[in-house]
Design goal:
About 30% of the residues lie in helices and about 30% in strands. The chain contains 2 helices and 4 strands. The chain is α+β, with helices and mostly antiparallel strands. Strands 1-2-3-4 form a 4-stranded antiparallel beta sheet, with no helix packed on it. It has a domain of about 30 residues.
């Protein structure tokens, strides 16, 4: 039985799930001509429709994507 790499395979599967989750929409907000879209991975796209200026912001927190993914389940994980 090949169990030598089972842990590594599980880690990789979890990482792929976290990356897919990260691409999903967290919220969409529109106010006074400014549209903000944030994704679960922390990226934000901000469009000022009055000036057509676009700002893209990366996640600036300290938690990893995997940590944020796992915490999104609360106590229901595992």
């Amino acid at each position: 039985m090949m169990t030598e790499f089972t842990d590594e395979v599980e880690k990789q599967k979890l990482k792929i799930e976290a990356e897919e989750w990260g691409k999903q929409l967290k919220y969409y907000h529109f106010n006074n001509g400014v549209r903000t879209i944030e994704f679960n991975n922390g990226y934000k796209t901000i469009l000022d429709t009055n000036t057509d200026k676009v700002i893209v912001k990366k996640y600036e927190g300290s938690k990893s994507l995997l940590d944020r993914f796992l915490s999104s389940f609360g106590d229901s994980w595992n």
